[in-house]
Amino acid sequence: MPSARFPAKRRLPRVRSSPAEGRWRHSREAGLEPDVLVIGGGNAALCAALMAREAGASVLLLEAAPRAWRGGNSAHTRNLRCMHDAPQDVLVDAYPEEEFWQDLLKVTGGITNEHLARLTIRASSTCRDWMRRHGVRFQPPLSGALHVARTNAFFMGGGKALVNAYYRSAERLGVAVRYEAPVDRLELKDGHFVAAHLRGGERIAARACVLAAGGFESNRDWLRAAWGQNGRGEWPADNFLIRGTAFNQGVLLRHLLDEQRADGIGDPTQAHMVAIDARAPLYDGGICTRIDCVSLGVVVNREAHRFYDEGEDFWPKRYAIWGRLVAQQPGQIAYSIIDSQAIGRFMPPVFPGVKADSLPELARRLGLDETTFMQTLSHYNAACRVGHFDHTTLDDCHTEGVSPAKTHWARPIEAAPFYGYALRPGVTFTYLGLKTDHTAAVRFNDRASENLFVAGEMMAGNVLGKGYTAGVGMSIGTAFGRIAGANAAAAAMKRGARHAGA
Predict the structure, then answer these.
(1) In terms of Cα–Cα distance, which of 211, 244, 289, 163 is closest to 429?
(2) CB-based contacts of 441: which residues, under 8 Å, 6+ apart?
(3) Is the dihedral of CA 314, 318, 320, 324 positive or negative?
(4) Where is this region: Disordered (predicted)?
(5) Where in the chain is the domain with CATH 3.90.700.10?
(6) Which CATH number among 1.20.1380.10, 3.40.525.10, 3.90.700.10, 3.30.450.20 corresponds to the domain 272-426?
């Protein structure tokens, strides 16, 4: 029986050839091996590959996905949370280090490594010029995202454009790229990287390696083992949807933790988990499936009861708690309820909501018990103390005498037509990962490897013990991708010089 941390392995597609692979095979036939091997194909992996190449190292990047699906979850992103002490092009006002740190401290509940968190924060203030040099362009936020105009820099064209820009830059600089090249295991000696073994049995040696192959959010067996069975006899993970790539199976993460006994960090049930439209696809639904109207109305579970404060804080700071909240409800489903007053105040999702001219009709159309639903809405409406409604501030509209309270943006739901959205937990990425330090080195028995480094989702749990705030995943991936790439290049050069002198 697989454990929560280490479930049984899952088969992935076989390795297939590509033009990039053909070029690399030619160099192998000439007796060449890369200085730096990067395993992964998203933002963190690409940052590592680019930094290593800029430092003079030869680099091979292995992406498990086909070319059309390259980029992992990074293809679904849209912005980067950035520290800045004054207005900077697309960023308004200031977002100083201490405020960024306090935001992160609040959402993680203190489950974070302050040293690595502050390293990430400081790095976010200096990375954008480097990103521009590699073809990334930024734009002001769209009207539906003005509430993060001060804290987040948006990519022109979104994450897919960012990923494509990085791949173009990598190819221009001479980084070799292979697609459909999943790595099954690593060959290590006393914590030192020796070689990677691909699914088909091919062995690739290198002087240094960067691991940036993502978490295990796409591995249903692992999610099921981690979450287990709840008191209602349900397996919550069976109802999870995956917001991003189907290729993040956690194969290398499990191999490092289980077989190689690398130092791990994090809870396997903690993740960036968002409440998304229940009609979303199993994989790769992306940001357009997120339901952003939660703070403008109420959320009820399958039994038509409210279960959490919908107005606790600004949506960018709290949206990533709602997937976990829904996962804890009966059937892992909930319903976001709004009225016509909310329309135009949130980013519309890809699917229209269920529409009704009355609340009883909405209950029936959603399949909820009409009597209980009307009691819940009546109690909420009567409890609302409406002051000056302003969704851009922590306003004074709140409830009194109802539990759970709604602490901001509380207005009676009374203006027809009414809308309802069925919600499911949408997993973005998991937080169980490899323990690291400021060098991005993988650690074994609390000792840093000299030539094996980690970046992105595989180490994000060092900074994110739980919770999330918009754009910080890209901040972590960019910071540690660049650190890992630079240090891998230095390690490769050091090992090369040592061998040359032998």
Answers:
(1) 244
(2) 448, 449, 450, 452, 453, 454, 487
(3) negative
(4) 1-27
(5) 272-426
(6) 3.90.700.10
Sign of the Cα pseudo-torsion (410, 413, 417, 423, in order): positive
Angle at 460 (CA atoms; ends 5, 138), nearest 5 degrees = 145
How many other CB atoms sit within 10 Å of the CB of residue 401?
9
In tens, the pLDDT along 422-447 reads 999 999 999 999 999 999 999 999 99
Is there a contact between 331 and 292 (Cβ–Cβ < 8 Å)?
no
Band of pLDDT at residue 14, cut at 50, 70 and 90: very low
Per CATH, the architecture of 19-215+250-268+431-501 is what?
3-Layer(bba) Sandwich (3.50)
Q: What is the pLDDT of residues 448-500, one digit of tens each?
A: 999 999 999 999 999 999 999 999 999 999 999 999 999 999 999 998 776 66
3-state class (DSSP) for residue 434:
strand
Closest CA to 131 of 475, 462, 499: 475
Contact 277, 350 (CB under 8 A): yes
What is the pairing mode between strands 398-399 and 264-265? unpaired
Which sign, positive or negative, has the C-alpha torsion 293, 296, 300, 304? negative
Buried b / exposed e along 452-466 (16+ C-beta atoms within 10 A): bbbbbbbbbbbbbbb
Q: Where in the chain is the domain with CATH 3.50.50.60?
A: 19-215+250-268+431-501
